[in-house]
Amino acid sequence: MKNSEMGTKLAAQPEQGRSAVKQGLWTAVLAAVPVGMMVMCIATSMNLKTVAAAPDDYVTKVQPIISAHCAGCHNPVRLRGGLDLTTKDGIMKGGEDGVVIVPGDVDKTLLLKLIKHQPPAGGPGAMPPGNRPALSADEIAVIEQWVKDGAVIPADAAPTAVPPPPARPAAAPAAAPPAN
Ligand code: HEC
């Protein structure tokens, strides 16, 4: 009987049997350390990658949208809603209703609700307001991703360009698309 033979052997050398078990445990623990460190390193490098990409996103993707669609009404001179969207300070300070961007939290970011035309009841309306065209789905996706990534604005980003004042009211009807 092999089993009983083994039992006898182990019983005969109880110390050896126990230390072999201990050694096995230690080997397992020591093997787990490098694996754990590797997992942590991979996770960290993935994180760094996201954070590193975000500053570029603001300058290359987000600023052009704000410049074209928002900065005309939200700049230090024309502070509609008490909100300046042309600088990091202005964006993070928010407007009359408080903070407009919560970095990393898409659901709490008022600015996203407004550009998605889901304004909160009793608060500011959809942006851009009036009969101005809404942002495209791509533009909204860019801003949403940027908020998700932490709404990073590099400290040295230049203020967003403010477009020249809108055309005179008389020119507006001609520029509007035909209604049908
Ligand atoms: C034609 C002018 C105009 C343009 C263009 C415009 N806004 Fe506004 N915005 C306003 C006014 C006026 C308010 C004040 C609240 C209201 O009337 O709904 C406001 C309010 C806001 C608020 C709320 C501020 C607060 O604390 O109450 C946010 C956020 C905002 N705008 C974002 C944007 C974004 C983003 C864009 C571009 C996609 C944009 N706005 C384009 C006029 C404008």
Mean pLDDT across residues:
81
**Class inferred from helices and paired strands:** mainly alpha
Distance between the termini: 94 Å
Strand/helix succession = HHHHHH
Q: What percent of the residues sit in helical stretches (DSSP H or I)? A: 40-55%
How are the secondary structure elements laid out?
Blueprint (H helix, E strand, L loop, with lengths): L1 H11 L1 H56 L18 H6 L16 H6 L21 H12 L23 H4 L5
Helix pairs in contact: 2-5
This protein binds heme C.
The site of heme C (HEC) has 25 residues, from helix 4.
Structure in a nutshell:
The protein is mainly α and 180 residues long. The chain has helices at residues 2-12, 14-69, 88-93, 110-115, 137-148, 172-175.
Descriptive account of the structure:
By secondary structure, the protein is an all-alpha fold. The protein has one domain. The chain has helices spanning 2-12, 14-69, 88-93, 110-115, 137-148, 172-175. The chain is elongated. Residues 1-12 have low confidence and may be disordered. The structure holds heme C. The site of heme C has 25 residues, from helix 4.
